[in-house]
Amino acid sequence: MASTAAPAETAKKPARSKKLLVIIGVVVALLVLAGAGTLWFLKSRAQAADGEEAPAKAAEPAAPPVFLPMDMLVVNLADNGGERFAQLGITLQLADAKTAELVKQHMPTIRNGVLMLASQRTSDELLTREGKEKLAKDIQREVSRPLGFDAPAAKSKSRGDEEDPDARPRRKAPVNPVLGVLFSSFIIQ
Fold first, then answer.
1. Which of 14, 55, 72, 174 is 20 to 30 A away from residue 89, measured at CA?
2. Are 89 and 187 in contact, with CB atoms under 8 Å apart?
3. Per-residue model confidence as pLDDT tens digits over 137-159
4. pTM: predicted TM-score of the whole model, two decimal places
5. Are 180 and 136 in contact (CB under 8 A)?
6. CA-closest candidate to residue 122, choices 160, 167, 81, 175
7. Tens digit of each residue's pLDDT (9 = 90 or more) over 76-122
8. How far is it, in rounded angstroms, from Cα 102 to Cα 90?
9. Which class for 151: exposed (0-12), middle (13-18), buried (19 or more C-beta within 10 A)?
């Protein structure tokens, strides 16, 4: 019996060593693939970061924008009966402090224009996001006008005749320093 047991043990050893070699090979292959995947991921991430930084640096303005809050505005809306009104808190986003000083000098004219714009709207118009965005664009145009800049007119179905067909060439003029109109408060009652 001793002679039959020895060949069985020797047969198990090569089978075990083959299994062990296969397992080690699979583990090494997985480690190599994981390392290659990690390296590829890190390189692509670094390239994406390099690609994003270059345009971001080019697009950054020389100075941070200046925010100029306007006094709270209360205006009667153009609803039937005249019973609805809006209370608006507006903050202007301007390119620099020099523009802020110019806007402050023209504030009575700007405030009057904004009141006139808002009083022409109905509550139904102003309750929608599109209506608020259109009002913001119109306010931007109204603030830009005394400074000598033309802001793009908001698209309107009812006021299509107000838009100037020759406005495209003027838009290529110097960049408008009134960057945006932000609502800090918007209440309709």
1. 174
2. no
3. 999 999 989 888 876 555 544 44
4. 0.57
5. yes
6. 81
7. 999 888 789 999 999 999 988 998 999 999 999 999 999 999 999 99
8. 17
9. buried
